[in-house]
Design goal:
Blueprint (H helix, E strand, L loop, with lengths): L6 H11 L2 H16 L2 E2 L7 H5 L7 E5 L24 H14 L10 H4 L3 E5 L4 E2 L11 H15 L4 E5 H5 L11 E5 L16 H11 L10
Parallel strand pairs: 2-3, 2-5, 5-6
Antiparallel strand pairs: 1-4
Length: about 220
């Protein structure tokens, strides 16, 4: 199956595209796009992969679902397009960055500058029906993105995994903690951010780890 995904990822993930679950997932997603409003736009489903080729990955942030409101999702977890209101979870991420690193709180929610520095912004599920959170869960995306996470763990060293919330935290089972840094905290959602996301200092910890391994730190300012 010819999947339109960035080459360095394609050469590592190609075996998945021939598996029955992925063919069923593709058929489901194609039908959904034909029969209703699905986010993100088809050209942005693999946008995170496009902006952050495999060899450049040094930090992974894991989300669950794309945003399901009009004009919001563009293929990067927690990110919205320029001109779209910054969503509450990302507002809290910015607050933590400000408290942790002293950087100004950004007024744009477009996280493409992070992706271009090697921050892989992966949602566990890559598509969603408009206004129906979780509507494409359990259709095969999670099986695929689990393979993505394990491939990073197996084939790279010294990657920082930022796992926020119980759902993301469970993905630590896929990651070799002897080769990588795993940082967990409650989700930055307003419902849980005060339980330990604020004050987690993940951004300074990530940069300190990268620096200790001779890698360039991330400029978390947007």
């Amino acid at each position: 199956m010819d999947v339109k995904i960035e080459f360095s990822w394609k050469e590592r993930l190609e075996p998945e595209f021939e598996k029955p679950y992925f063919k069923a997932l593709t058929d489901f997603v194609k039908w959904e796009y034909l029969s209703g409003t699905i986010f993100p736009h088809p050209k942005n489903v693999f946008h995170a992969f496009e902006l952050c080729p495999f060899d450049q990955v040094k930090v992974v942030i894991l989300g669950q679902d794309p945003y399901h409101g009009p004009g919001q999702a563009h293929g990067l977890c927690f990110s919205v397009r320029d001109g779209i209101q910054v969503q509450p979870s990302l507002q809290n991420i910015y607050k933590e960055i400000h408290d942790d690193l002293g950087l100004p709180i950004s007024t744009t929610g477009n996280l493409e500058p992070w992706a271009q520095q090697g921050v892989f912004l992966l949602n566990a599920t890559l598509t969603v029906r408009a206004h129906q959170a979780g509507s494409h869960q359990g259709k095969g995306w999670e099986e695929f993105t689990d393979v993505v996470i394990k491939t990073i763990s197996d084939q790279k060293e010294h990657v920082v995994f930022l796992l926020w919330g119980a759902y993301a935290g469970r993905k630590s089972e896929l990651i070799d903690s002897h080769k990588h840094l795993i940082l967990k905290a409650p989700h930055p959602s307003p419902l849980s951010s005060h339980r330990g996301f604020f004050g987690c200092k993940h951004f300074s910890q990530a940069n300190a780890y990268l620096k200790s391994k001779g890698m360039e730190e991330v400029d978390w300012g947007i």
